[in-house]
Design brief:
Helices cover 43% and strands 18% of the residues. By secondary structure, the chain is of the alpha/beta class. It has two domains: 158 residues, Periplasmic binding protein-like II (D-Maltodextrin-Binding Protein, domain 2); 93 residues, Periplasmic binding protein-like II (D-Maltodextrin-Binding Protein, domain 2, 3-Layer(aba) Sandwich), CATH 3.40.190.10. Helix 4 links the parallel strand 7 and strand 8. The protein starts with a strand and ends in a 12-residue tail after the last helix.
Length: 275
């Protein structure tokens, strides 16, 4: 594989932390990488269109692309206590949202998938309004929508917008399944072959290990792309969303991913690369 691979991931600190080694050339990739940093829902849409060779995708989007892509075992965001939050300015609970307008960070996001499962259990019907993730909290605070599903650093900063948490959607999943929640995974084109997929998996692992060994080396890259510039929030973001599952999902993690993909309507066969 001599041509540059088209790779996409988000500008969020967990992704820029993991991928700094590859982006900087510290971890080399033969032929080079053509890297796109974009909002998660844009990445999901590009993956569905087959525009990228290696791409970070949400679970719901992964369910749509498994014919053309296979998931790597490294590089994703997964764990306990890492899920999206449902927030509001003045609503009391999920039941009070019946008939409300709720902002979501994209229809293909894991956040929307979990919110849909929550609404189904609660028996409520809502109108969804899609937004870029960093527009959700301001819209809720301004009263443009009744509630919102927040992801990324919103987990740590929603109170600064005068909002309250109605439900931790990750905890909702964990309580019902006992499983960790997959927020995003790295997908690679099946047509590139399993050898390339395995080498990319290992390159991502090495990129993450390099960042853990010397976090300061990746600091400027992370801050240059972060929506939230506060150093404490960035550190908490990385600590929360970069877990041991980011090095390898493991058998238990793979099972949790397959359970979530089934909820998204996918046939869960041959989901991950074999090492």
């Amino acid at each position: 594989m001599n041509r540059a691979l088209k790779m996409g991931y988000s500008p969020c600190p967990n992704d820029t932390f993991i991928f700094h080694g590859l982006a900087s050339g510290l971890v080399p990739w033969p032929g080079g990488l053509d890297i796109l940093l974009a909002d998660v829902e844009e990445l999901n849409a590009r993956a569905v269109k087959g525009e990228l060779d290696v791409v970070k995708v949400s679970a719901a989007a992964a369910a749509e692309i498994l014919d053309e892509y296979v998931l790597l075992r490294a590089g994703g965001a997964m764990g306990y206590g890492v899920g999206p939050l449902l927030v509001s300015r003045d609503r009391r609970d999920v039941a009070s949202l019946d008939g409300a307008t709720v902002a979501i960070p994209g229809r293909r996001t894991t956040a929307n998938l979990l919110f849909g499962l929550c609404c189904k259990e609660a028996g409520v019907s809502v109108e969804l309004k899609e937004m870029v993730f960093d527009e959700v909290m301001p819209a809720v605070a301004a009263g443009e929508v009744d509630a919102g599903v927040v992801i990324h650093e919103g987990r740590f900063t929603f109170a600064e917008h005068g909002l309250t948490r109605l439900l931790d959607l990750g905890a909702f999943w964990e309580e019902h399944t006992g499983l960790p929640i997959l927020l995003g995974a790295i997908a690679i084109r099946r047509s590139l072959g399993m050898d390339t997929a395995r080498r990319m998996n290992e390159a991502i692992r090495q990129s993450l290990l390099a960042a853990r060994e010397n976090p300061e080396r990746a600091r400027a890259y992370i801050k240059s792309h972060a929506q939230e510039m506060d150093d404490n929030v960035i550190r908490e973001h990385i600590r929360t969303f970069v877990t041991d599952y980011s090095l390898d999902v493991g058998d238990a993690g793979a099972g949790a991913v397959e359970r979530l993909l089934r909820e998204a309507g996918a046939t869960v066969e041959d989901v991950f690369i074999e090492l």
